[in-house]
Amino acid sequence: MKKESKVLLVANYLHDYPNATGREIAKKFKCALSYAYILMSKAKAIEISVEEVVDEIERGLDSIAPSRGTLNNEVFTDTVNHPPHYKTGGIEVIDFIEAKSLSYHLGNVIKYISRADHKGDKLENLQKAQWYLNRAISNLK
Fold first, then answer.
1. Do 50 and 89 fall into the same domain?
2. For 7-28, what is each residue's pLDDT tens digit?
3. φ, ψ of residue 23 in degrees (nearest 5)
4. pLDDT tens, 75-123?
5. Separation CA 80–CA 69 (nearest Å)
6. What pLDDT is attached to residue 134?
7. Is the pLDDT of residue 126 over 90?
8. How many C-beta atoms surround the C-beta of residue 138 within 10 A?
9. Residues 57, 41: one domain?
């Protein structure tokens, strides 16, 4: 199957199942999880339908809402379901945490370390990770 057609298939699947995870896409389309995220990213970039564009133009708007895909080569992201600071490296942090069956505390350690360079204050994120790690350690004592 050509890459372009796989992207279209993923786009159609995401249209029908907008909350699908990277893991579901990887399983459904028989590919690596990191490649599933690439496919999802490309699929979301083409998700604006012709009808939506026509509606926007008819209303006289200059831009399309950020959650809808791309416009003028600007890529918009879904900051609620798939924030970019949680999927750096080709895998979403939540998928890693679930795959490793980490506890709440250890999951938060991974979350704050993973996003430290990509969202907010790095030192604060690392201190939060340290707080959750200390809590997990004290719970073991």
1. no
2. 778 878 877 787 888 889 889 8
3. -65, -40
4. 555 666 666 666 666 677 788 888 888 899 999 999 899 888 878 889 9
5. 14
6. 95
7. yes
8. 9
9. yes
- Residue bearing tokens 């490649």: 35
Q: Give the residue, 37 or 74, on which the prediction is more confident.
A: 37
- pTM flag (> 0.85): no
Are residues 8 and 23 both part of a single domain?
yes
Helix/strand/coil for 70: strand
Residues 52 and 93 in one domain: no
Q: What is the largest CA-CA distance in the chain?
A: 65
Domain count along the chain: 2
Domain's final residue, options 31, 46, 80:
80
Q: Are 93 and 87 in contact (CB under 8 A)?
A: yes
140 and 99 in a common domain: yes
Domain end among 62, 80, 98: 80
Rounded to whole angstroms, the Cα distance separating 89 from 56 reads 34
Check: CB of residue 67 under 8 Å from CB of residue 76. Answer: yes
